Amino acid sequence: MEPDRPSPYASDPIISFRAVKKAFGPKVIYEDCTLDIYPGETITIIGGSGTGKSVTLKMLIGLLKADEGSISAFGTEVTTLGESGLLPIRKRVAMLFQGAALFDSLTVAQNIKYPLREHHWGDEKRLDERVAEVLDMVGLPGSQKLKPSELSGGMRKRVGLARAIAVEPDVILYDEPTTGLDPINVRRINGLILSLQKRLGVTSIVVTHDMDACFTFTDRIALLHNRRFSFVGTKDEAHHCDNRYLQEFIAGGRGTLDEDVE
Ligand SMILES: Nc1ncnc2c1ncn2[C@@H]1O[C@H](COP(=O)(O)OP(=O)(O)O)[C@@H](O)[C@H]1O
Ligand SMILES: [Mg+2]
User: Fold this and answer.
1) Is 130's pLDDT higher than 50?
2) Of 132, 167, 181, 225, which residue is the least packed, with the fewest Cβ within 10 Å?
């Protein structure tokens, strides 16, 4: 951890998953999902494809319901909230979806205004100002009137990020933010994650297969394996841990490993 950032672990967790179970029909995703997230930290969730990384993020903001167990955010139990109760949680926890998930029929500006309106950000002038601010932050000034179809994959991801940060969230969830991007955009997006962490002090939960990036910006790593988080610890602890699957993963397994490795 860098010396200029206070240790987040002195505080209580702002997000806690406790003994969460989740299955889709006969397919069990989680037997016991237990994980604490601390204010200001960046934690990276790694694990093979289809193990439930996206499901974790979606359960946190109530897009998917846990079958059993508890998920709390900022002291509020999320699992029992309805749509209106989830709204304040989704203002504080923004998600950059895999594939950016922009509305194709709307312009860049309209896409970014969408959550701002949902959270009653202010009048049209204030919305325009905020759109300009966040487009500047992601290095896309002046792109308000473009449609998603006119943007490259990397630009779409950056607009998605602009939309996620527009409401000034406390926590940002990044679901495979660099998958499918060319090396220049990979560096750009990873640089943005790092600068948002430093400038805004946000708490970040990142799902990625990019281990180099992970070791650049993460404070802790959580490995999802065998329907639970089988390792949670700092980068240093990850390097020195004897979890064989974790070591193979760090070495570059990238989710192509046999899921049965213990
Ligand atoms: N809404 C859903 N309905 C049924 N199955 C789902 C749903 N969402 C995810 N799954 C299944 O849950 C498993 C974990 O999905 P996901 O979290 O997206 O994996 P990943 O770790 O690659 O992000 C996958 O097998 C996926 O098919
Ligand atoms: Mg996923």
Assistant:
1) yes
2) 132
Distance CA 254, CA 256 (A): 6
Residue 52 Cβ inside 6 Å of ligand 1? The answer reads: yes
pLDDT tens digits for range 144-166: 999 999 998 889 999 999 999 99
Q: 207, 187 in Cβ contact below 8 A?
A: no
Please state which CATH class domain 40-57+80-252 belongs to. alpha beta
Contact assessment for residue 261 and residue 245, using Cβ atoms and an 8 Å cutoff: yes
* Domain extents in the chain: 40-57+80-252
Q: Nearest ligand to the C-alpha of residue 33?
A: 1
Tell me how far CA of residue 229 lies from CA of 53, 72, 192, 200, 225, in angstroms.
10, 17, 27, 28, 6
Q: Is 208 in the pocket of ligand 1 (CB under 6 A)?
A: no
Which atom of ligand 1 has the smallest separation from the CA of 64? 1
User: pTM of the full predicted structure?
Assistant: 0.90
* Alpha-carbon span 93 to 63, nearest angstrom: 12
